[in-house]
Structures are given as structure tokens and as C-alpha cells.
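REQUEST FORM: STRUCTURE PREDICTION
Request ID: SP-0412
Submitted by: Lab K.M.
Chain count: 1
Length (residues): 350
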Amino acid sequence: MAVIDPGMSGPQGGAQDFFLCDILGAIPKDDMASMEHPVFSLSTRPDRRVLNYAHNDVRVEITPSVKGLATIHDKDILIYCISQLIGALNAGRPVTRKLTLRAHDLLVATNRETSGDGYRRLVAALERLAGTRITTNLVTGTGDEARAVTEGFGLIESWRIVRANKSGRMMSVSITLSEWLFRGVTSRSVLTLSRDYFTLRKPLERRIYEIARKHCGRQDEWRIGLEVLARKSGSASALRVFRKMIRDLVASDHLPDYTLSFADDILLVRPREGREGDVVSPAKSTPAAAQGGPFLAPSTLDAARALLPGADAHALADDWRRHWQATGRPRISDPDAAFLGFVRGRAARR
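STATUS: Completed
RESULT:
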């Protein structure tokens, strides 16, 4: 549970003006705008270049602070925030673009170290996210499509850390997202990521996975030329170097959800068999194979929410299917009853 900062409550004890990040096991979600266009630096060193990207009618300019551009690893913070907001929206809870969270929960969820160095890196990432400025005509959400809009903003508007007085330990972090990003989240312009995304350490691996997830989705295959891929990825490497990096990535074959092949400067992306992918909308009836496990009725997800209030039912289903796969995919005569038993166990431990 996140620690509430009393200083962030509404006036005269009124309604909270912040959203408390307390969705257990929220499914990782990413905004489609930054998956489509190169907003984050792939460099592992301070990157102080001003980047300009144009594709069709979309223009993006990214300007760094003295601390450098926000990196694709810094984006973990935004993914965590987006995941929490979508989890709350799915549960029918109100949300705001100001979030309060426990730093430890964020670090664990994104597969980061929880050492002192891990917390220092978190502060540095927040500084880069707040300092990086975006100017773009790319509209998020709905309502502005009929008119041309160009706006400038930071990836996050502000951040604040609360520490325990005696120990100096970081207790909670408050983050205010940009209006641009928040509009994208509340309009649900997001896609589910594999939890294994956070195990990818190389920046280019993460970026290629994002691009594959955005453009291939559940299609049988998707192709992209090397030069377009290089621009879309945001790579600063020469094309011959980028070509070698893609060949090495294809050879390693460890991207979640997708397999890659590369020939004649064309990258071919195909979904892996049995990948988890998105958990489908409760209104849709999708074969179990498409979800990586037994199908659950929408009413079963509603029952899970009642058994474990505040939890993301889709995340619980995701965990249950992963457990089912890890135990050898045994035959289940009643998947709905088995899943609810799993949830009852989780509720008892909680």
C-alpha cells in the first residue's frame, strides 16, 4: 500500500486531489503515442542532443535538460503510473494525473534494484523526465482531432519525495503527469506489455519490442524496412551499425511475445505461439489459446473483484494462467472455479 502524504490532501479535508497507487499486480500498460514515435533516448550515457522526428504529418521535437534526455529505462516510471491508472479505471475508481506511490513498489514492479543505488537512480530518472521537453502536434485523447494543435510539455509536470524523518528513507513519491500523457491514458490509448519487458536490459531491445507490440499486435506478421525502423526506433547509430545490432537481436531471439527474422534489410515480426499478449475485454469471447491459458467468463472476473477488492482482476487472471503454465498445464475441468480458488488463496494471504 502506498504511503499517503498528508500535505497532498484537498482543502479543508476535502476530496483527494491525487490518485493513490495501490493496485496489486497491475498489468503493465504503455501509451501508444510513445510506442509509435521515438520520444525516449536509447543512450546509456547523458544524451544532450535536441532530437527532431517527423513521420507523415506528425512532428516531434525533444529537448533535454542539463541532465540529459529521458531514457527508455526512465520510461519504466511512466509505465508503472499508466498501469496503475488503467487498473483503477477498470475497477471504476476515479483517477487524477497526480499520483502518490511507494518507491519500493515501483522498483519491484519494474524489476529494478531496491538498494540505495536503486533509489538514487530513481531520483535521477525523475529529474530527466521532468526536464525533458516535448513539442509536438501529435494529439492524444479525443476532442482535438478537428483542429491543429501544437503543444509543449515535460513528460512529467512535477515530482516530490517524502522521507521518514529519522531514517531518511524514501517513503513515498508523488508524480504529476503531463496533460498530454494523462489524456492518452484516460482515453485508453494504451497497450498491454509483457511482464518480461522489464527484464530486457538493452535499450534497443525494449524499443524494438515496443514497435513490434504497437504495429504487429496479433497479426500473423508485420514487416518494416531497415531505414524506417532506424528512424522510428530513435537510434543514433549509423545505418551499418544499426543493421548489425538488428542482426544480433534476431540471433538472440529473446524478445517477449515475438520472433524476428531479417533479410534484404527487411525485418519480419511474427507473434510467438502461445504468447500471453493482451488480456481481452470482458465483453469479448476469445479462445483460451489467444490468452495463453484457460478462458474465464466475464462473471468470474466480477466475482474475483468482489473477493479481492482493489485488485486488478485481469492481473489476477494473468498470474493464475502463469501459475497454470508453470505447473505443466494440467487439465482443468472447471477453470472458473479453479481461478476463484486461486483468488481466495491470495485474499487469505493478503
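NOTES: Residues 6-192 form one domain.
Reviewed by: T.R.
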